[in-house]
Amino acid sequence: MPLRHSLLAVLVMIIWGTNFLAIDIGVDDVPPVLFLAIRFVVVLVPAIFLVPRPAAPMKDVLVVGLFLSLGQFALMYTAIWLDMPPGLASLVLQAQVVLTVLFASVALRERPTPPQLVGVMLGAVGLVVVGLGRSAATPGLAFLLTLGAAASWATGNVIVRRLGAATQATGARPTPLAGLSMTVWSALVVPVPMFALSLVLDGPAAVGHSLTHPTWPAVLSTLYTAWLASLVGYGIWNTLLARHRASAVVPFTMLVPVFGMTAAWLAQGEVPNGAEVGGGLLLLLGVAVTSGLLRWPGRPGRPGRAQYGAGA
After folding, report:
1. Residue 77 and residue 32 in contact, taking contact as beta carbons nearer than 8 Å
2. N or C: which end of the chain has fewer CB within 10 A?
3. How far is CA 212 from the centre of its chain?
4. pLDDT by residue (tens digit) across 35-91?
């Protein structure tokens, strides 16, 4: 991959890593469910008028949005609102890679390779170490919600893979905009139910006050998460995947927790303890093995198998 494209991939990882910090800033001023609804309204308008509809049936697109957008981010925003440290959240969310392999083995009958099984076990051990050794400042419910967000993302990955396989079976070839169009159109499932849920959970008065009295941190956080993380990030990412082998692009996602934890350390003084560092390294090692970044000696890689993202 040319140096310019490698630098673009690193830029996306910086955007996605620091996005967790942006979410943390936003939910300080806006209830998490309402903040999520606002984010995806900004994602949709005006992008939905500019990006063509995905080739998949609309009901399938909405199911993708149910897991990749609504489920994942509703759990993630709530977890961060419940004081899940943003740097640690960027790390735990990487469990979606190993969970995708597990879910695909059941739903798609994709038999994991021996390295993938090893990677899944390493990732599981790393998660257990992080969960049991997390600092007292990290609530257990927030950790579980973050893990639930990773599971929702993994489920969405499996659905997207199934749709992609069905599309390829018809002889159609994916376009560079295919991933971005799925990101935008699947977001249709988010705003209305999240606005309605916020009215129930937070009350009309709180919703009305947040909408009529926006703070600058909330506005900037919304623009960052919607425009940079969702549209710019995925726009660059899907273009790189369309032009290069997935095995050359996907390993860059290992940088997301690096930038996420660094940003949280610089901005908020978030310093992981020994168990979080050790468990995190095990988790990332598991992700590296599962995604194919690390392979058995003497065995050729299988390019294109790993296609899991790492955004937020």
Report:
1. yes
2. N
3. 30
4. 999 999 999 999 999 888 888 889 998 999 999 899 999 999 999 999 999 999 999
